[in-house]
Write a sequence for this structure.
């Protein structure tokens, strides 16, 4: 019987043993880079898609009222307004813009770190403990992404509590 999807996905981001090679770790880093690129792209499309829907609905309201369609069917303008409210609520709940920015930033930083290491430049110029430094920096970047996301959530919660 084959592996479940979750087991396979988990293996993409973890080492198989404590004594793993540079190549194995590079594969994990490459998987993280692809993950953050995919997540950033999805959040970007969600952000733009939802905003386009919202702008179309907002632009439709005055046009609908101008051509006097709402005299017989007032529900049309109410529906357009409700769509805007729903879209804005979903965007606030999913925080697609914030996620897009955080994921894209992490993707860029991981790629940068990988390129600097591969070329033996900057902080990776000296051979001693080079791989150890690389691992520590990569792990710090991944951890930093989670920390940034927690800060975004805390700020939103703080704003909600202060507005009450």
């Amino acid at each position: 019987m084959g592996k479940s999807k979750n087991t396979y996905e988990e293996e993409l981001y973890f080492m198989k043993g404590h004594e793993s090679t540079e190549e194995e770790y590079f594969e994990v880093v490459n998987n993280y880079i692809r993950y953050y690129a995919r997540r950033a792209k999805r959040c970007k499309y969600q952000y733009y898609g939802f905003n386009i829907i919202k702008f179309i609905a907002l632009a439709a309201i005055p046009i609908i009222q101008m051509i006097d369609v709402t005299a017989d069917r007032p529900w049309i303008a109410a529906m357009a307004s409700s769509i805007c409210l729903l879209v804005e609520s979903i965007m606030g709940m999913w925080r697609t813009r914030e996620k897009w920015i955080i994921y894209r930033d992490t993707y860029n930083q991981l790629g940068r770190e990988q390129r600097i290491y591969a070329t033996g430049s900057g902080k990776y110029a000296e051979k001693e403990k080079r791989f150890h430094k690389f691992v520590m920096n990569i792990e710090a970047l991944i951890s930093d992404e989670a920390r940034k996301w927690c800060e975004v959530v805390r700020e939103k919660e703080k704003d909600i509590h202060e507005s009450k």
User: Anything to note?
Assistant: The longest helix spans residues 22-66. Residues 16 and 149 are 28 Å apart (CA to CA). The mean pLDDT is 88. The radius of gyration is 23 Å.
